[in-house]
Design a protein that fits this description.
With about 220 residues, the chain is α/β, with parallel strands linked by helices. The protein has eight helices and seven strands; from the N terminus they run ααβαβαβαβαβαβαβ. A seven-stranded mixed sheet has the order 3-2-1-4-5-7-6, sandwiched between helices. Helix 3 links the parallel strand 1 and strand 2.
């Protein structure tokens, strides 16, 4: 579903400018530059309205988080959510408005410890397979930016996308652990931080598929 245009979106984003990486090319020199402390660096691609990013940042003060979203009007909501919680969480979260296609232009090789894909667009038509964020061309980008031994954590409610993704991971020779087709009923749910989408769909009884991929 297309996000509704936010009234005064540009002004609202500007009001949260201190949380936004406005020039992502600065990350090439030092991806830790936006943060006061150099810590593990985790990256979420497609952060949506920011519930997961804000929750993870609060839960893990010893990790720096960058939450990427390609739709500015959606990122606006995430930024405002993070801004509203600034007095109750550590200063370890920054946002980036951009596309995953540009990952290797912005992040140095082997600079990210962990990458999250949460409820990515399934692009269900076969001719759009190359747009899926678990397509092998994207996996090559992740392999470049992730540190040796880095991991990708993937969650989706879409069984078709999950099956496609498992095939792509296997084709790339990437080991997988913690695979479950019902996350919320599995041991892997311990410590799980839900996205807005995840909470809504799981409350309707839809199972959540998840897997950890090792690079």
């Amino acid at each position: 579903m297309r996000a509704r245009k936010k009234k005064h979106g540009a002004e609202r984003i500007a009001a949260c400018a201190h949380l936004l990486i406005q020039d992502p090319t600065v990350l090439r020199e030092d991806p830790q530059a936006p943060f006061a402390e150099k810590q593990e660096l985790h990256l979420e691609i497609g952060c949506g309205k920011g519930n997961f990013a804000c929750g993870m940042a609060a839960k893990h003060p010893d990790v720096n988080f960058i939450a990427m979203e390609c739709v500015a009007d959606v990122a606006c909501i995430a930024l405002e959510k993070a801004e509203a919680a600034k007095d109750t969480r550590p200063d370890n979260l920054r946002f980036l408005i951009g596309n995953a296609e540009n990952l290797t232009e912005w992040f140095p090789a082997h600079s990210v410890d962990c990458l999250y894909l949460n409820f990515s667009d399934p692009w269900p038509k076969a001719r759009h397979a190359k747009r899926r964020l678990t397509y092998r061309a994207f996996l090559e980008k992740y392999k470049t930016v992730l540190k040796k031994g880095g991991i990708l954590r993937f969650k989706t409610d879409n069984a078709g996308l999950f099956d496609f993704s498992l095939e792509e991971f296997e084709a790339m020779g990437l080991p997988m652990t913690d695979l479950t087709r019902d996350l919320h009923s599995s041991p892997q749910n311990e410590g799980n931080v839900m996205t807005e989408y995840e909470r809504a769909w799981s409350e309707k009884g839809f199972p959540i598929h998840a897997v950890t991929v090792h690079f």
